[in-house]
Specification:
- The protein has helices at residues 7-18, 22-29, 33-42, 48-58, 62-67, 71-77, 85-100.
- It is mainly α and 116 residues long.
- Helix 1 crosses helix 3 (33-42) and helix 2 (22-29) crosses helix 3 (33-42).
- The longest helix is centred in the last third of the chain and has 16 residues, at 85-100.
- It is elongated.
Amino acid sequence: MSVGDGIGKRIRQARHVKGFSKSRLAREVGVTPTAVWNWEENEIAPRFDTLAKVAFCLEVSEAFLRTGQTEADAAMNSGSRTPSISQLVEETRGKIAEATGFPLDRVKLHLELVAD
């Protein structure tokens, strides 16, 4: 997922990757479809507690929705030189989902590490 211009675009991108309509996201989060429309079209940020629900439903971090920073970016910016394997896998799943149009929950990766 790219950073986008603001929180609304990042919510829209994550929603599309997940395969959710605005109405479905609204139902999952417990808000009206108009609220989702306002987030995406008017760049109105959800309330703090609602943002946590949005992030959970869309399987992204709150930091990503707020700033566009992925967990791998955050780890690298916090002084960690190498992101964890799980961070790399999750970021890769998101990129594959975006590139293929598949919902994130339908992208499964199998990793095999082979030592010589």
